[in-house]
What we know:
By secondary structure, the protein is α+β, with helices and mostly antiparallel strands. It has 3 helices and 9 strands; from the N terminus they run E-E-E-H-E-E-E-E-E-E-H-H. The strands form 2 sheets. It has a 6-stranded mixed sheet with strand order 5-6-7-3-8-9, covered by helices on one side. The chain has a 3-stranded antiparallel sheet with strand order 2-1-4, covered by helices on one side. Strand 5 (67-73) and strand 6 form a beta hairpin. It is globular and about 40 Å long.
Amino acid sequence: xxxxxxxxxxxxxxxxxxxxxxxxxxxxxxxxxxxxxxxxxxxxxxxxxxxxxxxxxxxxxxxxxxxxxxxxxxxxxxxxxxxxxxxxxxxxxxxxxxxxxxxxxxxxxxxxxxxxxxxxxxxxxxxxxxxxxxxxxxxxxxxxxxxxxxxxxxxxxxxxxxxxxxxxxxxxxxxxxxxxxxxxxxx
Length: 187
């Protein structure tokens, strides 16, 4: 089993262990955008398969070199390492695959390299459990976790991966509390 990876590439935030992930048999990683989902999937596979030697990782000998992409479609990737599943996706609904709160991780970015007055671009990965009250939210059920993620409490998710606004957007299209406010203007 793949136990952990410490990402060493320059794009990862190094402080406070934001470049370290501990895996379970059923890790679920919610990404803030498509590019992050794609690059993280490749980084994990390349690390286990020995193509990203700059990263530190720990896995059983029989798993070394055996990472493969099991499923790849627009919104989700599933990595298989001898039966261990790592789901990387954009839709918050992937959290329903989690069996325990330790399964859920979030992956996001901040900053900008093009504008020097802004903080530098960094990617960071963190467990849901770093947030105060997240274990109680888990105990309240997966619907509570889903709603909390959709409402932006854990960072990472903002819905921008899908065009919720489109050409018909006026004000607010929806929120995840289940109360829909459709303000559609005709052109």
